[in-house]
Amino acid sequence: QVQLVESGGGLVQAGGSLRLSCAASGRTFSSYAMGWFRRAPGKEREFVAAISISGSRKYYADSVKGRFAISRDNAENTVYLQMNSLKAEDTAVYYCAADYSGLQPSLEYDYDYWGQGTQVTVSS
After folding, report:
1. Labelling 36: which of 13, 25, 78, 79 has CA 20 to 30 A away?
2. Closest among 63, 49, 56, 30 to 95, alpha carbons compared
3. Are 24 and 2 a contacting pair, CB within 8 Å?
């Protein structure tokens, strides 16, 4: 069982930055690939970024490539999402998720555990 708690969301102006954190409970964090997804108002939840267990492989949605960076600290049981050059269209609730198989990092159904989400609002 893995419990995930996101933090770091808030209100920021367009062009600004935020860093999201996701703290995981349990001793098996290092057995899971991790991902970030988001749901904008009126839209389906979508993939943002994912990272392999070791951190050697990272995946990004085209819409955030070059602006967002995912990282993890297995000693601290935490995954991060650094978001730079934020745009109004990045406004969403951001969720972190844990994926035991790590086979399909961009697909929601591959993930086993989800956090409650943190709101990010970008004002234009």
Report:
1. 13
2. 49
3. yes
Q: What angle do CA 86, 108, 120 make, to 5 degrees?
A: 25
Q: Which tens digits make up the pLDDT trace of 8-65? A: 999 999 999 999 999 999 768 989 999 999 999 999 999 999 999 999 999 999 999 9
User: What is the percent of the chain where pLDDT is above 70?
Assistant: 99
HEC profile of the chain = CCCEEEECCEEEECCCCEEEEEEECCCCHHHCEEEEEEECCCCCCEEEEEECCCCCCEEECCCCCCCEEEEEECCCCEEEEEECCCCHHHCEEEEEEEECCCCCCCCHHHCCEECCCEEEEEEC
* 48: exposed, middle or buried (Cβ count in 10 Å: 0-12, 13-18, 19+): buried
Radius of gyration of the chain (CA): 13
